[in-house]
Amino acid sequence: MRETLETQHEAELAEVERRRDGLKPLLNFLQRPWVRALAPLVLVLIIGVVFNAHRAFYAWGTHRDMLRQVSVYGILACGLTLVIITGGIDLSVGSLLGFTAVLFAQVSIHQAWPALPAVLVVLVAGSACGLVSGELISRFRMQPFIATLAMMVFARGLAKTISGGEKVSQAVLLPDGSPKYLDLPRVFSVIDSKVLGGHLAVVSIIFFACVAVCWVLLGKLRWGRYLYATGGNEDSARLSGIPIHRVKLLAYGLSGLMAAVAGICQAVQEQQGDPEAGNGYELTAIAIVVMGGTSLNGGRGGMLFTLLGAAIIGYLEKILSINAVPEAFRLMLTGGIVVAAVLFQKVRK
Amino acid sequence: MSALSTSEPAGEAAPLLSMAGISKAFSGVEVLRDVRFDLRPGEVHVLAGENGAGKSTLIKIAAGVHSEYEGSIHLHGQLTRFTSPHDAAVRGISVIHQEMSLIDAMSVVDNMFLGRELSRPGSGGQWLDRAAQLRRARQFCDQLGLGDIDLLRPVEDYSLSVKNRIEIAKALAWSARIFVMDEPTSALSEPEVVRLFEIIGQLKAQGCGIIYISHRMEEIYRLATRITVLRDGRYIGTEEAARLPAPELIRWMIGRELKTHFPPRRAKLGAERLRVEGLSLLAPGSTSTGSRRWLVRDVSLSVRAGEIVGLAGLQGSGNSDLFRGIFGALGPPAQGRVLVDGQPFRVRSPRHSVRQGLAYLTSDRKGTGLVLSMDLARNVTLASVPAISPGGWVQESRERRIAAEHTQALSIRATGPTQEVSTLSGGNQQKVALAKWIETRPRVLLLDEPTRGVDVGAKHEIYELMNQWTEQGHAIVLITSEMPELLGLSDRIVAMHRGRVTAEFTRAEATQEKVLEAAMADSAP
Amino acid sequence: MKKLLVMLVALGLAATARAADKKYVIGMSQCNLGEPWRVQMNADVKRAAEKHPNIEVIYKDAQNDTLKQVSQIREFIASKVDLLIVSPKEAVPLTPPVSEAYKAGIPVIVLDRKVTGSDFTEFIGADNKKIGRHLGQWVVKTLGGKGNVVELKGLMTSTPGQDRDSGFREGIKGSDIKIVFEADMKWLEPNARKEMESALATNPHIDLVYGHNDPGAHGAYLAAKAAGREGEMKFVGIDGLPQEGQAYVRQGILSASFEYPTGGDVAIEKALEVLSGKQIPKEIVLDSRVFTKDNVDSGGEWLK
After folding, report:
1. Which end of chain B, N or C, is less packed with Cβ atoms under 10 Å?
2. Interface of A with C in 247-266 (CB under 8 A)
3. A220 and chain B: CB distance < 8 Å anywhere?
């Protein structure tokens, strides 16, 4: 009798042990960086399913719209990821977006340039502004925060100057005060359209393309390696023969280029160039990068994490909007989720 | 093999600190197992062991850095558990760090009282009493021979050795009884070391206990009252220093005896690889004629293929600056020229120098050698990325293979090529830094302190590697603050003092006394 | 530099004005030229002033900074302008400098937003609540008394946003108009487009979208167009600027745009009256117009 009790007890113990072993793979799974990174997104998606006004969350259109809405921020975040990996910051992306949006509207609507030269000129202008920031930072040893803050103010002024302080749209006032309407160039409707049977916005494809380009750069190309090394330890990188100066020019130049891409996307979606466009977008873009898990100290992070951060921010905004949550609560909830996502990343360490 | 000493002389003072049955694991990996350690008043207790033996973890537990562990700690006979480094510091345990814990931009006095500021009576601890702080700080600095220090200047204005003493003064200001010194001399010159040892003597006399970690045999026997040895996280034994001769100590540490300390030099000398002619270097930022400060003056040097030339010099001798100058880290030199394989090359930037076949191992692997946030493989290829990325695309398989080759050749202990270097032990990090430079297939290796903070076994491996590389035709210029190493490894020794070359010795001529004399002597202008 | 020159010239003119007589210098303090509507206000002032060769207007832009506007008004007082037009950023902080000017004998016309107290010559402004009410009544009439409406609000923490909302609700009271979706879009077009997409996703049937400003209504239109549903509903906005609201109406994007007049032209008219010694009322509420496809080319229709 006694013996059977004991064996029974042993069997129970073994069972407990087995269960614990059974849990182990699950615990290990939860420890994985990817799982931890995905956790905040899953959390946000669960909120979306629970608070699902009119079952809109089950409609593909909602997700497509989310992707479209977050694309402009996401494109800015792509460029910012590169800069942040080098241990810098670029505060000018929002203003550059405004400047390039106005420039694009100016040359393509008002000057009626063909699409290709218009796009090229805008991309070159954006990159040039980024390169100026990069030059200030690497050659003149200005702190990235200061240099790009100056660029942020300067670019906003530039946007207001070339637009005359007004939105650049199809409607123009002739000197005698009578209105005149210009044609909307075809490039506007092409970029602001949807493909795959209306299931995906073109701007989202542009966003994915930017992610892909930056992902290849960071993960596969020599210069990507240089970006990480520079952000990880600038002194070691320089003494290892890495061209720090050019690395920084590359990062800030590409950030400017991405801002210009975002500017074009913004302009076509608004069908105008608003000199105030992109105000404060840099903060959302930084939030996306950081929520993805890229370290503001530089040297760590990656593109796919930024994609994840964009999805979290995008879904959060979408869910709050679908449920028509009042503005005050939106702000508080967004703050809360940003903190939660970053905490998830921290635990990962 | 247990060589335990259980001798406990009667009437011995009660220990200041005693730790028993200490075990500690990090995410499942056991780092310490059932380790004991005690410290008596007025003794220097050396904690010895190879890197990775668990010394650092043990003192971190003693200093409150790790508050999660198994086992017991008694402080002055009372069972205790430190909750934080601050808690330990307040209760009289002070750690003199290998990496300084002072805040560079803050003044000496503010550093000394940081976290335990003196306040005016009646202010609820909120109003700083700067006068009292200055008075106390002055008193402790005087005691440590820092009488002429300006307490209000930021500590970054002072040399490493002064900073070291400021840290000790800080500990005294906090009325510490227990001092933990982790490789305190690694960055000090000989006279500074002597000065530190005097201070340690003072502390002993005052009844303080000192836990001392060092990889230098000479220091250990100069200081130690008792020695405790750890190996692979296990307690090996404790013995009076006088009863534990060096060969026995090494046997405890590594579990085997080292045959010869320095491997014999076998390389054959070839053609001249590196030639430096009349090189003079200015301190960065002192280019205006008004405030010219010379780091290196009119130095000429020649190194042949297969040769190791040692650069002897104390702190401030300019030998490290000479490396930086040759390597282009100081920009184009003010005067003189550098030739590699007989070809003059314009010194411009590190990037340019790497392409010319120069390699520069810095003395600070964490600060200027490795990128700690990157993995092993990426650090190994850091200086030769173009070679593994034809057309700009990094070939990761090739990179892994290269990393694996070096991991094997240098016997780097790591889980694999993707392990982050920040998680490697000091010796293995150093080998990664060396691998990085060997991978560039350099013609000339400038090695600044290649064995700093590296355990005995790894040191020996690095000596062997240097031998191999010279056999393959590389030329090596070596800086080391350990005199035996300099004498044992160099084919020739060039002594520098205040930026100038003062003497040159062949291997046969060189003795410790001669080299030190040359390194300390002012060359006649 | 150029600005400085203009100012110097203006000061010189101010000095000679009295000698030549009948030449007046008017200071125009604008709180923020970052908004198209305020750019329009300055343009209206300018156009009206150009018709009168005996007045000279000096413009200052406070760039949305209350304190800057305070000091700019003091600069005008110090340079002894003949009259001051102020479009204040905020009521309370701008009351003291306006009062100083008034007490120093400079007539002050306050445009758009009020200051507190009564130390000013005249207040000219439009009534957001009234415009909202008219818009509401127009919606009831247009939809035949019933339908689903999406309201894209400006910023509900701002007075214009609150008034345009409450006026509208008064206007539709008693009808079967239902507000099926409402959200803040902070006066910004991209936000309006975002919110409209959510409205479209959650509402299968929408009859009309009311944007608190024309760009908001336009953003909503772009969202509906992207969803292929722009034909199903009407779009209405407020502000009626020539390049925005009026243009959208002409293009057939908006069914109607309700003017929120800047009062710039009226201000110059009243300024001349004051300067010629006439007595003018303490407050003028500006009339506004509604622009629809039918009347936009003939200058809109005045609201009663």
Report:
1. C
2. 266
3. yes
- Establish if A194 touches chain C: CB-CB under 8 angstroms: yes
**A245-254, B254-263, B338-347: range with highest mean pLDDT:** A245-254
pLDDT score at B2: 42
Contact state of A235 with B436 under an 8 Å Cβ cutoff: no
Q: CA of A78 to nearest chain B CA: how many angstroms apart?
A: 20
Tell me, letter by letter, the H, E, C secondary structure of B262-317: CCCCCCCCCCEEEEEEEEEEECCCCCCHHHCCEEEEEEEEEEECCCEEEEECCCCC
Nearest to C183 among A69, A169, A321 (CB): A321
Q: Which residue of A has its CA nearest to B365?
A: A236
Tell me the one-letter amino acid at C99: S
Query: The pTM is what?
Result: 0.77
- Residue A322 to residues B257, C67, C154, C196, C208, Cα–Cα distance (Å): 74, 39, 18, 9, 18
Q: Do chains A and B touch (3 or more CB pairs under 8 A)?
A: yes
Domain count, chain C: 2
Does residue B508 fall inside a structural domain? yes
**B180, B203 Cβ separation under 8 angstroms:** no
pLDDT at residue number A341: 78
If one counts the domains in chain B, the total is: 2
Question: Where does the pLDDT of residue B6 fall: very low under 50, low under 70, confident under 90, or very high at 90 and above?
Answer: very low
Q: Mark whether C170 and C274 lie in a shared domain.
A: no
**Domains of chain A in sequence order:** 60-348 (1.10.3470)
Give the span between the Cα atoms of B142 and A185, in whole angstroms. Answer: 80
Identify the pLDDT of residue B100. Answer: 61
> In chain A, which residues have their Cβ closer than 8 Å to the Cβ of C226?
192, 194, 201
C15 in a structural domain: no
Please check whether residue A36 touches C, CB under 8 A. no
Q: Note the pLDDT tens digit of each residue in C172-193.
A: 999 999 999 999 998 999 999 9
Domain that holds residue B399: 372-441
Subunits close to B (at least 3 CB pairs below 8 A)? A
- In this complex, do A235 and B367 lie within 8 Å of one another by their Cβ atoms? yes
Asked if residue B344 lies in contact with residue B338, where contact means CB atoms within 8 angstroms, the answer is yes
pLDDT in tens, A146-189: 999 999 999 999 999 998 878 898 888 777 767 778 888 999 98
State the distance between the two ends of chain B, measured CA to CA, in whole angstroms: 60
Residue range(s) defining the domain that contains residue C73: 21-125+263-287
8 A C-beta contact, residue B96 and residue B172: no
The residues in A 292-321 lying below 8 A from B, measured between CB atoms, are 295, 299-300
Rounded distance between C-alpha atoms, residue B221 and residue B236, angstroms = 19
- Are C239 and C279 found together in one domain? no
Give the tens place of pLDDT for each residue, B93-126: 988 865 567 888 889 988 888 877 888 877 777 7
Tokens of B358: 């120069």
Q: Does one domain contain both B325 and B388?
A: no
Q: Report pLDDT for A277.
A: 92
Measured between CB atoms, does A71 come within 8 Å of chain C? no
